[in-house]
Design goal:
single chain; mainly alpha; 0% strand; 134 residues
Length: 134
């Protein structure tokens, strides 16, 4: 009966971190999500579908021959292999949150004038006079 005790045991991922290739592909996906300002829906989807990450990786392998016609074969395979790991959802969530925090930080004053402030030597009222409005 010793085998029955571990019949439903789930091994945790000992390393927890992706390889360099997987990290590059996951980072590219996370940056695309943040650039499109879809971080919150993506995080919700990842958290809701957490138990299905292995199934989604298997579906990616199944659709691989068709999908790689349009996508990079190596990157697609790396991402599918990455999703097979239990820690992949945690890594994606952490990375999206970190990239979103970077994007939300205000720009430093050394970056130049902001779009809202008038340029040097220009009065704030000059914008409205250009439109012909009083």
């Amino acid at each position: 009966m010793k085998w029955f005790r571990h019949a439903f045991a789930v091994n945790s991922d000992p390393s927890g971190e992706p390889t360099e290739g997987q990290r590059a592909v996951a980072d590219r996906v996370c940056r695309a999500v943040v650039r499109r300002r879809m971080a919150t829906p993506a995080l919700m989807l990842l958290e809701m579908c957490r138990p299905l990450n292995y199934l989604s990786a298997q579906l990616m392998h199944f659709f691989g021959p068709v999908a790689t016609v349009l996508l990079d074969r190596r990157a697609y395979g790396e991402f599918a292999a990455f999703l097979e790991r239990r820690s992949s959802v945690d890594y994606l969530c952490r990375r999206i949150e970190a990239l979103e925090a970077e994007a939300d930080q205000p720009a430093s004053p050394e970056d130049g004038p902001s779009c809202d402030s008038p340029a040097e030597g220009e009065s704030p009222a000059s914008d409205s006079s250009a439109d012909g409005l009083p």
